[in-house]
């Protein structure tokens, strides 16, 4: 036996001369102390050692994590023993294969990681002991002789580990000593970092592929709002991180809650997790990157009187959430029975993913044939035997009343106990074969023509072996291709399962597969309660057509729906835009459509009335004109002042005709005619009337002071004055044409109502309200002036009654236009503006013409047609008589003499004949007729 104190000094010296950082070497020392031999030929109870020409290391979670300070816990039959036996099975096949590594025997050193990364780190230091130079010069045995130190086997490569956290911890040690590592189950994405884990390879795809496959499943189901649950550690956290990262890059999926399961969960921890998941009830889908032990219920000894820590599924059941959560599980769940045992109703509908694999029948035959007698090399097999058959090998271990029987060694796996091959067995075998094929190719290259090992492979160079591992490619035990990319990762190939319950029988059914893209049979899927329709997992219901999404800050999958109202339409999912000025939104506000264009139709009630008035007015005007032409030389026609009468009748006719221009379909020609004739008819009428009233006024005023006639009272002069007044209107219109050419346009503003459905575009001429005021303003000025003269001549005697009809005409016309102004401009905001204003304007113009026609000419026509006896000449008066009439008017109307400018109102006849007599006295005679 070694002297303890000397041995400590020996191992400290060894650590000082070792490789790597101080921290790592301290670990070496502690591990060496823990693993030092206690005597010659001692059997390692914490590892399996199989001799061979080349030794491979193995790391397997034979036991679960321990509690209460214990390193290891209960035995893991499937993930531990099945996988370990798969490595031993592969070694047997390789050593018995004459074609693979001929004359070379592979040995092994298999360690138990106890599902804990720190424990695995301590155990894995066994693999590097042979690479550490030991200095035993200062160590003496009690007999005085030098110490006898057994040289450990040299491990050229390691198979494992299972958990990603364990592989990461071990990879940091193995890379320092250039020992290649091939994992059969570690899928953490960070292990793909070739700059940090350059000696790490794996025959399973990284979780980046798995996360992509799970994201594709979520999108195929149209789930947009999900939660994630991850076990603390590299596997769970890296998997969820990869899923979240991919979902952010591709968009369309939001994370409601991201929950982490602690390494050592306290009682009630899973109840809190379920409570957090319930905070977002719309997020029914839960992405699960959790260890198997965190999914199912596992009993952990916490104190002598209290057992059981509730896990995820049971916590959900306790919260009465059966059928609510839709689980999407990673390969740690896969198609295992253990996670769903006694929790079938909670797991119903769960979608799980597993690297594509096949059951290895040869391993099944091998494993069910294992007994205590033929499997002594597995030091944990006896414990497995007791656990599997619920018996005890030693009578001393039996307890009274426990109900546990003694093992008979006649039990058989698969006959006296259930058996199902663990899912990663295929990958364990492929990992061992990958190492064997790499060694085989290395031997062929370094030892050409030789059988067995040669000096160039003693020892095996780790860097060279890594190169051969990365370049190896072969058909795996299940026929699948085994190869590695530049980062040491295997290609991603997954099978997709769903846990279904049918006829009170539950099973995992394959519903699809994934290899770079998803192939999913949605019709084969079944959800909780036997429902076939895919359940929803969305934050917000889809917006209806015509509604935009207003996202909640920080959660793009949650939104409020806002209606695109008014003249807005839904331009895209998140935007409402205004329709173009000539468009309005369609019924559901998903696009724009042209605004209907309207105009005043001939059949409209708004047009029938003014057209009827205009037609009657034109007929009446034609009747007057024809009567005047027929009786042109009769006294009444002559006394009416034929020249101005025809001019006035022309203006009246144009006033009526304007109605048809106002209702006609607007175009350039119609709009041009509107500009010309809308004001021209009234200008002609009021110019003629103004000339008449002005002539009467001047003659009557002249008669007060002189017997000589006033200037410009002849018919020719009257026509010149009238056309001069009319020319002002025409000149203004010409200037308007020059400044702003006429055009037809569609006005979309007048009837742009609050309700787009009522919006209309109005086809009209480019005559604004201001332009209309200017256009009619001159006519109004003539009308007002004419009214003033009519007022001034209102007091003439009965026998001079021409002024009275003109006065009545102008008074009535003023009333018509005073009524027109509030109606026209007061309806500017009305939806019927176009109809009301057009009708009001045309009727007002027609009424003005009708007043003139009715008061000035219809009495004459009546006399001419029905009382021809009155159509005779009256006596001729001299100017002296006119002066006398004016004087008598002042006498009978004393107030008249007080009026400004000595106004005296009298009426004179319209026909004036001037005679130059041969004598020195001049007489002016007037033929007076009733008008």
Automatic annotation (TrEMBL):
Give residue ranges for domain G-protein coupled receptors family 3 profile: 606-880
What's its membrane topology? Multi-pass membrane protein
Q: Where are the transmembrane segments?
A: 606-632, 644-666, 672-691, 770-791, 803-825, 845-865
Q: What is its main location?
A: membrane
Keyword Glycoprotein attached = yes
Establish whether keyword GTP-binding is in the entry. Answer: no
* SUPFAM superfamilies for the chain: Periplasmic binding protein-like I
> Where does the secretion signal sit in this chain?
1-34
Instruction: Give the GO molecular function terms.
Output: G protein-coupled receptor activity
Q: Where in the cell is it found?
A: Cell membrane
One of the record's GO cellular component terms: plasma membrane
* UniProtKB keywords: Cell membrane, Disulfide bond, G-protein coupled receptor, Glycoprotein, Membrane, Receptor, Signal, Transducer, Transmembrane, Transmembrane helix
Please state which protein family the record places this protein in. Belongs to the G-protein coupled receptor 3 family.
Instruction: List the protein's name.
Output: G-protein coupled receptors family 3 profile domain-containing protein
Query: What species is this protein from?
Result: Megalops atlanticus
């Amino acid at each position: 036996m070694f002297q303890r104190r000397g041995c400590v000094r020996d191992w400290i010296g060894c650590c000082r001369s070792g490789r790597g950082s101080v921290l790592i070497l301290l670990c070496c020392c502690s591990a060496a102390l823990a693993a030092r031999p206690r005597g010659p030929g001692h059997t390692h109870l914490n590892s399996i050692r199989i001799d061979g020409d080349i030794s491979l290391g193995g790391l397997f979670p034979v036991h679960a994590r321990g509690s209460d300070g214990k390193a290891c816990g209960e035995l893991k039959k499937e993930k531990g023993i099945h996988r370990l036996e798969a490595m031993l099975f592969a070694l047997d096949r390789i050593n018995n294969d004459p074609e693979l590594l001929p004359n070379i025997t592979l040995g092994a050193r298999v360690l138990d990681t106890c599902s804990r990364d720190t424990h695995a780190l301590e155990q894995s230091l066994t693999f590097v002991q042979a690479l550490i130079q030991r200095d035993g010069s200062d160590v003496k045995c009690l007999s005085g002789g030098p110490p006898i130190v057994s040289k450990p086997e040299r491990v050229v490569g390691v198979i494992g580990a299972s958990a990603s956290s364990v592989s990461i911890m071990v990879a940091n040690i193995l890379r320092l000593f250039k020992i290649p590592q091939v994992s059969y189950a570690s899928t953490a994405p960070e292990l793909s970092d070739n700059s940090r884990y350059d000696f790490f390879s794996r025959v399973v795809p990284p979780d980046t592929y798995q996360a992509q496959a799970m994201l594709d499943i979520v999108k195929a189901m149209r789930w947009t709002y999900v939660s994630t649950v991850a076990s603390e550690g590299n596997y769970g956290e890296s998997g969820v991180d990869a899923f979240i990262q991919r979902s952010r890059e591709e968009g369309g999926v939001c994370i409601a809650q991201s929950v982490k399961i602690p390494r050592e969960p306290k009682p009630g921890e899973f109840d809190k997790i379920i409570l957090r998941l319930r905070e977002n009830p719309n997020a029914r889908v839960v992405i699960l990157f959790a260890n198997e032990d965190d999914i199912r219920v596992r009993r952990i000894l916490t104190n002598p009187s209290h057992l059981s820590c509730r896990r995820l599924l049971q916590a959900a059941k306790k919260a009465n959430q059966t059928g609510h959560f839709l689980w999407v599980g990673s390969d740690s769940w896969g198609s295992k029975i253990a996670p769903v045992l006694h929790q079938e109703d909670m797991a119903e509908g769960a979608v799980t993913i597993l690297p594509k694999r096949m059951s290895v029948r040869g391993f099944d035959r091998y494993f069910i044939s294992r007994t205590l007698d033929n499997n002594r090399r597995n030091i944990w097999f006896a414990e497995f035997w007791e656990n599997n058959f619920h018996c005890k090998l030693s009578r001393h271990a039996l307890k009274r009343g426990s109900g546990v029987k003694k093992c008979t060694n006649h039990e058989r796996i698969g006959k006296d106990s259930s058996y199902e091959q663990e899912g990663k067995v295929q990958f364990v075998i492929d990992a061992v074969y990958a190492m064997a094929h790499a060694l085989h190719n290395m031997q062929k290259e370094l030892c050409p023509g030789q059988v067995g090992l040669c000096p160039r492979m003693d020892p095996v160079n780790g860097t060279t072996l890594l190169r051969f591992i990365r370049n190896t490619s072969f058909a795996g035990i299940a026929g699948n291709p085994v190869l590695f990319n530049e980062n040491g990762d295997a290609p991603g190939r997954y099978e997709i399962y769903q846990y279904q319950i049918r006829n009170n029988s539950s099973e995992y059914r394959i519903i699809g597969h994934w290899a770079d893209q998803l192939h999913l049979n949605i019709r084969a899927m079944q959800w909780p309660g036997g429902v076939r329709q895919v359940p929803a997992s969305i934050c917000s219901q889809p917006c209806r057509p015509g509604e935009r999404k207003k996202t909640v800050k920080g959660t793009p999958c949650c939104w409020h729906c806002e209606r695109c109202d008014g003249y807005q339409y839904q331009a895209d999912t998140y935007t409402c835009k205004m329709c173009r000025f000539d468009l309005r939104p369609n019924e559901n506000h998903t696009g724009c459509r042209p605004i209907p264009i309207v105009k005043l139709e001939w059949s409209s009630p708004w047009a029938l009335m003014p057209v009827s008035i205009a037609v009657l007015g034109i007929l009446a005007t034609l009747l007057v004109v024809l009567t005047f032409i027929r009786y042109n030389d009769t006294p009444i026609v002559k006394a009416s002042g034929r020249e101005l009468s025809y001019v006035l009748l022309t203006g009246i006719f144009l006033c009526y005709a304007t109605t048809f221009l106002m209702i006609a379909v607007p175009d350039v020609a119609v709009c041009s005619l509107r500009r010309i004739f809308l004001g021209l008819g009234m200008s002609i009428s009021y110019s003629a009337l103004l000339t008449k009233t002005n002539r009467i006024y001047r003659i009557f005023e002249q008669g007060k002071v002189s017997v000589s006639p006033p200037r410009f009272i002849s018919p020719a002069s009257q026509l010149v004055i009238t056309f001069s007044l009319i020319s002002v209107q025409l000149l203004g219109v010409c200037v308007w044409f020059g400044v702003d050419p006429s055009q037809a346009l569609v006005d979309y503003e007048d009837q742009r109502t609050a309700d787009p459905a009522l919006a209309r575009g109005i086809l009209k001429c480019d005559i604004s309200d201001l332009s209309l005021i200017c256009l009619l303003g001159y006519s109004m000025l003539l009308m007002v002036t004419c009214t003033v003269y009519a007022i001034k001549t209102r007091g003439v005697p009965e026998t001079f009654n021409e002024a009275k009809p003109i006065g009545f005409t102008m008074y009535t016309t003023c009333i018509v236009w005073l009524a027109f102004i509030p109606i026209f401009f007061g309806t500017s905001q009305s939806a019927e503006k176009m109809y009301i204003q057009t009708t009001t304007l045309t009727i007002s113009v027609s009424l003005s013409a009708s007043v003139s026609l009715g008061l000035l000419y219809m009495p004459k026509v009546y006399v001419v047609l029905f009382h021809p006896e009155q159509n005779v000449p009256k006596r001729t008066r001299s100017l002296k008589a006119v002066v006398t009439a004016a004087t008598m008017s002042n006498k009978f109307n004393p107030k008249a003499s007080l009026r400004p400018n000595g106004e005296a109102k009298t009426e004179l006849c319209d026909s004036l004949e001037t005679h130059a007599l041969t004598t020195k006295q001049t007489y002016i005679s007037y033929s007076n007729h009733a008008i």
